[in-house]
Specification:
2 domains; 11 helices; eleven-stranded mixed beta sheet; Penicillin V Acylase, Chain A; alpha+beta; 430 residues
């Protein structure tokens, strides 16, 4: 029998190419790996947490408690560094658990140790410019938060960098594979479309990283030293915003669009929306903030405003920017394709409309709004929970064409003028 070489030449060449790339780019990587934000400018008191019972913990005016709907509520205040420390100290066990769930999921996707090493090298290279595109105060906050991260994953990256990378995970996931992990639906109605004429906004956040990831939902109430206090719903360890409202009645929700694979990570979208909540009082201020940030994926940001009694969709991508404002109507619907003039001839967006389930869900929303006049929070809930197809067709549970795909991390309703918010509890948004 002829003896064959099991180490295929093409495999060797791939290894050589990857090694070559690593050395070629190692200069660019080393600067970002060693980067530590300047936190000397901030005063800090390391929190001493007082345990009141199994589900309530406090430190000065900051506290974490579990409410009767089994949602965690976090209240924190202070300068950027103090916010990070207070957040980390209060949520440490929850945050470490969340980190474990996320990285075990990644291990499931990439079980080979060799490929995991390659992935770590790639992420360091890919994220090499992220810190240059994140505000320094948010870096300081992440640095404080990172002090309470687990030692278990230091082999992936140092704690601070790991926290920074995790804030770009939503963006990287859908940039690399256009993963169908994010198929969200959101809508805003006002004037003749609501019972009291006031603005009402609803959204399903269909971000699915397994059932365990969605178990510990966190409703955060943040009072920063500078800017506007705000609330948001996400998970432990997250300082960015995927769904939230500030004290001025500005709301933000994000919906992924069709993205081209970018060459390098820039500003994570959840930190752009965080900045909008912290510093915008109206729609124009929100647009100005979104416009000055360099993002690395395509995303729709539905912004509601109590001051304007209106809602728009800010559509951002690495090389384009548009704002969708409705004319002669008092409702805005948002699924996962762009609607502004700026993207009218965008081939990726056209492909998204033709080939994905985004247009189908958009039509379903229109259909339900024809049936449901004068929307109330209760009617908004029934829209977000709807599991049927067009014309009430039974399309099966978990179908990606349904508004409720039974995999949402959370659903949320905002009444900005009343400064009220309703948050779904487990299971999913039922």
């Amino acid at each position: 029998m002829k003896k064959t070489n099991t180490f295929h030449p093409s495999y060797k060449s791939v290894l050589f190419y990857l090694t070559f790339c690593f050395f070629l780019t190692s200069c660019g990587i080393s600067k970002s790996i060693k980067h530590i934000p300047d936190v000397q400018q901030y005063s800090l008191e390391v929190p001493k947490i007082k345990r009141i019972n199994d589900s309530t913990f406090s430190y000065n005016q900051n506290y974490l408690t579990k409410n009767k709907q089994q949602l965690w509520e976090l209240y924190i205040k202070g300068n950027p560094l103090q916010l990070g420390y207070n957040n980390g100290a209060l949520t440490q066990s929850l945050m470490q658990k969340q980190e474990g769930i996320f990285f075990s999921k990644v291990e499931g996707f990439v079980p080979s140790k060799f490929r995991q090493r390659l992935l770590r090298g790639f992420l360091k290279w890919y994220n090499r410019k992220m810190y240059l595109n994140v505000r320094e105060d948010y870096q300081a906050e992440l640095y404080g938060l990172a002090q309470y991260s687990s030692d278990q994953y230091d082999f992936i990256a140092p704690k601070y960098l790991r926290n920074l990378y995790l804030h770009g995970a939503h963006d990287i996931g859908h940039a690399m594979q256009d993963l169908a992990m994010v198929g969200c639906t959101s809508l805003a109605v006002w004037n003749e479309n609501t019972e009291d004429g006031e603005l009402l906004i609803g959204r399903n956040f269909d971000f699915y990283v397994g059932d365990d990831f969605a178990k510990n939902k966190l409703v955060e109430f943040v009072q920063p030293e500078e800017g506007i206090p705000y609330m948001s719903v996400s998970w432990p360890g997250m300082i960015g915003v995927v769904s939230g409202m500030n004290k001025e009645g500005i709301t933000v929700t994000i919906n992924a669009g069709k993205s081209k694979i970018p060459l390098t990570a820039k500003t994570p979208i959840s930190l752009v929306t965080r900045e909008i909540l912290q510093y915008a009082k109206n729609i124009e201020e929100a647009i100005a903030i979104a416009k000055k940030r360099k993002v690395f994926v395509s995303e729709s940001i539905l912004v509601g405003s109590a001051a304007d009694k209106n809602a728009v969709i800010i559509e951002v991508s690495p090389k384009n920017f548009g704002v969708y404002r409705v004319q002669n109507t008092s409702r805005v619907l948002c699924t996962n394709h762009f609607q502004s003039e700026a993207y009218k001839d965008d081939k990726r967006n056209q492909k998204q409309i033709e080939e994905s389930h985004s247009e189908y869900r958009y039509e379903k929303l229109q259909e339900l709004l024809q049936e449901e006049k004068k929307i109330t929070p209760e009617k908004m809930v029934s829209i977000l929970r709807n599991r049927s197809g067009l014309k009430d067709k039974q399309i099966g549970y978990g179908n990606e064409k349904a508004l409720n795909q039974l995999l949402a991390h959370h659903a949320i309703i905002f009444s900005p003028q009343k400064r009220l918010v309703w948050v779904s509890s487990n299971p999913y948004q039922l």
